[in-house]
UniProtKB/TrEMBL annotation:
GO MF: 2-polyprenylphenol 6-hydroxylase activity; FAD binding
SUPFAM superfamilies tied to this protein: FAD/NAD(P)-binding domain
E.C. no: 1.-.-.-, 1.14.13.-
UniProt family annotation: Belongs to the UbiH/COQ6 family.
Location in or out of the cell: Cytoplasm
GO terms for cellular component: cytoplasm; ubiquinone biosynthesis complex
NCBIfam families per the UniProt record, alphabetical: PRK08013.1, Ubi-OHases
Protein known as: Putative monooxygenase
GO BP of this protein: ubiquinone biosynthetic process
Main location: cytoplasm
Pfam families per UniProt: FAD_binding_3
Cofactor(s), by name: FAD
Amino acid sequence: MQSVDVAIVGGGMVGLAVACGLQGSGLRVAVLEQRVPEPLAADAPPQLRVSAINAASEKLLTRLGVWQDILSRRACCYHGMEVWDKDSFGHISFDDQSMGYSHLGHIVENSVIHYALWNKAQQSSDITLLAPAELQQVAWGENETFLTLKDGSMLTARLVIGADGANSWLRNKADIPLTFWDYQHHALVATIRTEEPHDAVARQVFHGEGILAFLPLSDPHLCSIVWSLSPEEAQWMQQAGEDEFNRALNIAFDNRLGLCKVESERLVFSLTGRYARQFAAHRLALVGDAAHTIHPLAGQGVNLGFMDAAELIAELKRLHRQGKDIGQYIYLRRYERSRKHSAALMLAGMQGFRDLFSGTNPAKKLLRDIGLKLADTLPGVKPQLIRQAMGLNDLPEWLR
């Protein structure tokens, strides 16, 4: 039976970030992942799942030693953001130079980040990657946790980290209650070719009941879209012929980049907000989507998860240095308090933003248009909004 200090269940982006961050700390780490990730060929078409990596996550990925690897594969640095309300005067725009930054963030395919982190973990003597591996049973002991895998092998760990996604098996087994709400929207994702270059600007338009984001990719004429629509509309858009889809897309987007054409398959997934009532328990800590999921409105989901990872890395290193038991709930409470607060603020902010920007009620439309206009013109508002979006208000000390 193998014994480790930390067993991370789920080798996605956030789970691997925790593993890489614990490298060299003296803690023995195992990562259990169902599939070994494949490297992405340089000439492969863009993957449909992308993330808007903010400055805080960039700092973490730099400290983990993977950021240069990510940039050398495929990433698009964006320098501006535009948000507007269709058919009205509501509009706000940001650019990096006027704010004193070199860039606002990067749009990166999830598979590129994932593979860079996997590669890094593979090179570490402190990290054991178990893949393909699937958990079958978990037993929480007083001093350690016993994990049984599908192939019959066993593992003990002083702390188990649940990084196993939105439908977390571990969270369920630990009987941690979940608050969740259906956003009553589905997200459609696709790759779009634009007639005019995107100029490294991320764009988002609110139209009726929908929200459409164009995220710039490394090809100046390619964007990844996330289109949040009612379930019926999303299904129709997915099944519509290409010409019909392109027509609806161009109308919604106000032809901002000339004629746009879909260049990939169209994927649709339902949007659900989730918030675990506990982010930690005896011998367990939850990170990323296992702890919380938010509306993809601002591309902040993975940034929130990376800050969970950053906070937990710092906390576990501190506990280990002080000779404390890393699996005791009393010591994990500090991580839990900090991250529950950040996630709750983000969830509430996203919900309020979405409520304000959905629907065609004239009074609500006027309110949001005035709000956008004021945010765009009042001194001091934009820098605060940008710092928040870049994650600079929420940095753990070791990343400052």
